[in-house]
Specification:
By secondary structure, the protein is α+β, with helices and mostly antiparallel strands. It contains 27 helices and 17 strands.
């Protein structure tokens, strides 16, 4: 698990060094560069040593004839099987790293190698004979990869901030991506808030050559287009236990100790329980978050996780370490936004940062995470709300519009009123539009009302459901609505939100996070299951809960659902009120020129009085302004 930078074009060695140093936090164990000005190619690498801790794992890594060079970020979990195959074909190895396996696999199979990989990865391979660089990103987008074009050539890096080391990179804002950020709290790939910088989509490869052509195409997609086959519930339980255990076993491969996140929720608890059964390690170190003060302020709808985490720790005989946080964690907002590269409106990244920081202090460089369980087997409230559409979605549009109008009068001050309001606020739309709308924080008309006239004109032609409806169009027309939503989770919410902050905040502390629920074989199995084994009228993750009954206490499996979050609504109104009013002051908003001060003030007042639940949109505005101060204005100590 590492980070890399590079370019193909007329760039200097000094730029390569600066770009590489910018992501030094990703690899505190080693660093290296490769620079060939006559070929106009440069590669830089920061190493976090996990497999083969010796110098033989150093990167950039060369083939024996030095005509192929690789920089790699991630882990290949099936590298030992691939190595045996290569050795049978006559390929030799100097060390024991998965990086060297990738290098030799490319020499044998070229880009066809990608179909054989089980792991989390982004890498760049310079092929001297072809005079091209191959960029690739894993199928789910667990590892990040950004790129940009300039007059001198193409730059790429594990983190956006490295690309900004070059003064010619255009820092013009992309208003469409900003609109998506306000709508979803994240920017769907390939866009970023900067018009000139793109994300390589998950499951894509890209060839770079001297002409600056960027030939990109997909080598993997989530297999929701495969037939859903009938299966007996008992067989599904048995196969899920087997597949999840295999995924955990694969991802325990490491030459350093492996710990785990343990929130007390079903996903992380399942991984911890299975890890203990597989590895039989007494007092394995696991890490969780505890809240100082009131754990569940009125109206937040949260459930305290810590008692459940302690219960699992005792049941599984693990050494649980707790990080206690409160509103003071927001003092790290600037640090969070700098490391995220993107203005994500969520406090959860800080949880990852504090947990990984403690893990590193405890000597743990690898953590298992339950990320992906909700996105594969259902688990969010929007999945249950979509399931309930079976009861009313067939109604004529005028009746659905009436339902929307009536439920829209419910108060947002109560948790139940807020959830009912959100469930029906798009009831009159078509089904694809409704599925996309479940990802919205507020109706599009409220967001549009905040823009200045100039900004509003730039997003006027933007469909409220784009680009997620375009993603949905790739599925067969008869795909079940729940699977359509899960496809969007896997294509966007995971890589553009959860996985981005998990990678960036963990790597900011020099810790690798692995996600067994996103094992490709487990994904293929989960996507083949009938929807009714995932989501029922009363249970999300139905089949996962049944599968975990032999391994976890009943009250942990069937506990109330909670998110990896904080009492945001209360914090924004009370503890962070001064911060919000300062960042979103009329002076600052007028100077920036994107949002009307009066409209933003009205949103703040309506949220505080309970007329709208605007907390996520307000926090999105705050993070966006802080992001622009850091990455555009450079009013920060980080650059």
């Amino acid at each position: 698990m590492c980070g890399f930078v590079g370019f193909l074009g007329d760039f200097s060695f000094e730029l390569l060094q600066e770009m590489n140093q910018r992501i030094a936090h990703r690899g505190p164990d080693d660093s290296g560069t490769y620079y060939q000005p006559e070929q106009q190619v440069g590669l830089g690498h920061q190493r976090l040593s996990i497999i083969d801790l010796s110098e033989l794992g150093h990167q950039p890594m060369f083939s024996e004839d030095r005509r192929v060079v690789i920089v790699f970020n991630g882990e290949i979990y099936n590298f030992r099987e691939l190595r045996r195959s290569l050795e049978r074909d006559g390929y030799s190895f100097r060390g024991h790293s998965d990086t060297e396996v990738l290098l030799q696999l490319y020499r044998r199979d070229g880009e066809k190698m990608l179909a054989q990989l089980n792991g989390i990865f982004a890498f760049a391979i310079w092929d001297h004979d072809r005079k091209k660089i191959l960029l690739a990103r894993d199928g789910v987008g667990i590892k990040p990869l950004y790129y940009t074009k300039t007059r001198q050539g193409v730059l790429f890096a594990s983190e956006l901030k490295s690309l900004l080391c070059h003064p010619d990179v255009d820092r013009s804002l992309d208003l469409h991506s900003i609109h998506h950020h306000l709508t979803y709290q994240w920017c769907p790939h390939p866009g970023t808030v900067l018009r000139s910088i793109k994300k390589l989509p998950p499951g894509h490869l890209m060839w770079l050559d001297a002409s600056q052509d960027t030939d990109s195409y997909a080598f993997y997609d989530l297999p929701y287009d495969q037939p859903v086959e009938p299966i007996r519930e008992e067989d599904a339980i048995r196969l899920l236990q087997k597949q999840l255990s295999l995924a955990v076993e694969r991802q325990l491969v490491s030459d350093v100790p492996v710990g785990a996140f343990l929130s007390g929720g079903l996903d992380s608890s399942s991984l911890v329980a299975l890890t203990q059964r597989i590895a039989h390690q007494s007092q394995r170190k696991c890490f969780t978050i505890g809240f100082q003060g009131e754990a569940n302020p009125k109206g937040e709808g949260r459930v305290d996780d810590l008692p459940y985490a302690k219960r699992v720790a005792q049941d599984c005989d693990i050494d649980l370490h707790t990080v206690y946080v409160g509103p003071e964690m927001t003092e790290h907002l600037e640090r969070m936004i700098y490391h995220l590269d993107e203005p994500q409106a969520d406090f959860a990244p800080l949880h990852v940062y504090f947990i990984c920081q403690l893990a590193r202090q405890q000597g743990i460089k690898v953590l298992l995470s339950g990320t992906g369980g909700d996105d594969l087997f259902t688990g969010y409230r929007r999945h249950q709300a979509l399931f309930y559409e079976r009861a009313w979605g067939w109604l004529p549009q005028p009746i659905r519009k009436l339902i929307r109008t009536q439920t829209g009068h419910l108060s947002n001050l109560s948790t139940m009123g807020r959830r009912i309001n959100k469930a029906f606020q798009y009831a009159d739309l078509t089904q694809p539009e409704r599925i996309v709308a479940y990802f919205h924080c507020l109706p599009p008309e409220i967001i549009h009302s905040l823009y200045t006239p100039d900004a509003k004109a730039q997003v006027a032609d933007l469909s409220f459901s784009a680009p997620l409806t375009e993603t949905l169009s790739k599925l067969p027309p008869n795909t079940d609505p729940i699977n359509q939503m899960l496809y969007l989770e896997g294509k966007h919410f995971l890589p553009d939100h959860n996985l981005n902050y998990t990678d960036k905040m963990s790597m900011a502390t020099g810790v690798e996070v692995r996600v067994p629920f996103l094992d490709p074989d487990l994904i293929r199995f989960a996507t083949s299951l009938p929807v009714d084994l995932k989501q029922t009228a009363t249970q999300s993750k139905y089949i996962l809960k049944r599968a975990m009954e032999p391994y976890l206490p009943h009250d942990v499996i069937y506990r109330p659902k909670t998110g990896f979050g904080v009492p945001m609504r209360r914090w924004l109104k009370v503890e962070l009120r001064d911060v919000v009013e300062d960042v979103l002051s009329p002076h600052n908003l007028k100077q920036r020129g994107l949002f009307e001060p009066t409209a933003v003030h009205n949103l703040l007042e309506q949220d505080r009085k309970g007329y709208v639940d605007g907390s996520y949109l307000i926090f999105a505005l705050v993070t966006l302004e802080l992001w622009m101060r850091i990455f555009i204005d450079r009013k920060t100590s980080w650059f």
